[in-house]
Amino acid sequence: MAEFFQHYWVQMGLSIFLSLLPVFIWIDFLLKQNEDSPKTLIKVFLFGVFSVVPILGIQYLWLFYPKFNLYSLFQHGDATVPVGFLATFIFVGIFEEFTKFNMLRHLKWAKVELKTVNDAMKYMLIIALGFSFTENMLYFSNILSNQQLGEFFHAFVFRSVFTMAAHMIFSSIVAYHYAIGRFGNPILELDRWTGQKHPFMDWLKRIFGIQEQNVFRFQKTVEGLWAAMGLHALFNFSLQMNHLGYSLAIVVFGFIMVLYLRKKRMNYLVFTTAERQRPSTIGIAEEKVVIELMGMWFNEKKYKEVIEICDRLGKRDPDNLVVKLFRAKAVDAKKIERVKRAIHLLFSEEDYDVENEELSLFDRFKTVQKKKEELNVETK
After folding, report:
1. 3 state SS of 354
2. How many CB atoms within 10 Å of residue 16?
3. Euclidean distance between CA atoms 25 and 22, whole angstroms
4. How many helices (H) does the chain have, and how many strands (E)?
5. Annotated domain spans of the chain
6. Using CA atoms, how far apart are residues 40 and 100, in angstroms rounded to an integer?
7. Mind listing the pLDDT tens digit for each residue in 7-47?
């Protein structure tokens, strides 16, 4: 049996198969309602597969030019902590996030368009799976070639579950922030209506004349990269220091966060110009007054009122992205407030008042009007 695994093509074939198997499982789990064609998914996956090339290039550079190797640069003497070893893995983790992000940015080369925030996160998940596929294939092939069959099962399970999940988590964080910055105009306008300030962008615009949209895109992208790189570096550091509990905690909580981000209604809004073709039947001045009122109510956490106003305004201006964003954020915020309220009621003796908790200002007004009408009928 051992002789069978010594053949190169057997090792490569088995490595490819075992690396592809978790990819299909993850895609089936995460993209059950996917509307993209298989051709599109394959193109995005191949972008992820080839995103490993820069990492391999650096490793070969270190192999042929040891003076550039981070290990030799940071490791001095018989240090108790393998600083060079840790620095190498931390750098690799950081660089991996940058290469995967660059693949997302250049999906237009494959004629793949990002229309929503969720598109960016979805494609980044597939890019991360492609990256993990190549990484796992090389890793499994190395284990088989060294005849380390005893540790193969543990390596397969860990890398197929936790390592692949970690790649998807870190990359999704980058994709989310990048997409927010990319589709920044309506988001910035929403921030203005809700009173959120961007002093750094205002300063750059005033001093250097840089458009706030460009600054916002750069700012959000950097935020996402820093978060992903930091988490990836911490994940690699924990693994190399044998702190598996920290690594697993990063993956578990990160995965929950990514699932939450993907469910946000704002992420499903289409930001392409093709979706803004229907004319508005309300005046600009009147619409601004209504949107200003929505901003005030949103800050006062009157989410149900905001949703109702958005529904009415949407009939007059169906392709207004700011209105759609207001509604999406209000729905998400309302859900979170409902969860907080439910937890509070669970541990308190306070009674649940349906009229105060569930009815909006408009619903209460209708209820009062109905009671008045009933009272007038009875008095007559």
Report:
1. helix
2. 15
3. 5
4. 17, 0
5. 4-274, 283-379
6. 17
7. 667 778 888 899 999 999 999 888 877 778 889 999 999 99
DSSP reduced 3-state for 33: coil
Q: What angle do CA 324, 266, 227 make, to 5 degrees?
A: 145
Closest to 252 measured CA to CA, from 231, 230, 227:
231
CA atoms within 13 A on the CB side of 132: 30
Q: Write the DSSP string, 115-172.
A: -SHHHHHHHHHHHHHHHHHHHHHHHHHHHHHTT-GGGHHHHHHHIIIIIHHHHHHHHH
Q: Do the beta carbons of residue 120 and residue 167 sit within 8 Å?
A: no
End-to-end CA, the chain: 97
**Residue 217 three-state SS:** helix
pLDDT band at 372 (very low <50, low <70, confident <90, very high): low
CA angle 53, 24, 91 (to 5 degrees): 30
**What CA–CA distances, in Å, run from 334 to 66, 81, 165, 303, 306?**
57, 49, 30, 6, 10
Any idea of the CA torsion for 105, 106, 110, 115, to the nearest 10 degrees?
A: 20
Tokens of residue 199, six digits: 């002093």
Quick one: tokens of 306?
Answer: 């905001």
Q: What does the pLDDT read at residue 129?
A: 95
The 3-state DSSP class for residue 241 equals coil
pTM of the full structure: 0.82
Residue 194 has pLDDT above 90, yes or no: no
Sort 182 into a burial class: Cβ within 10 Å, 0-12 / 13-18 / 19+.
buried
Return the ∠ at Cα 216 (arms to 180 and 197), rounded to 5°: 100
pLDDT digits (tens, 9 = 90+) for 89-133: 677 778 888 899 999 999 988 888 888 888 999 999 999 999 999
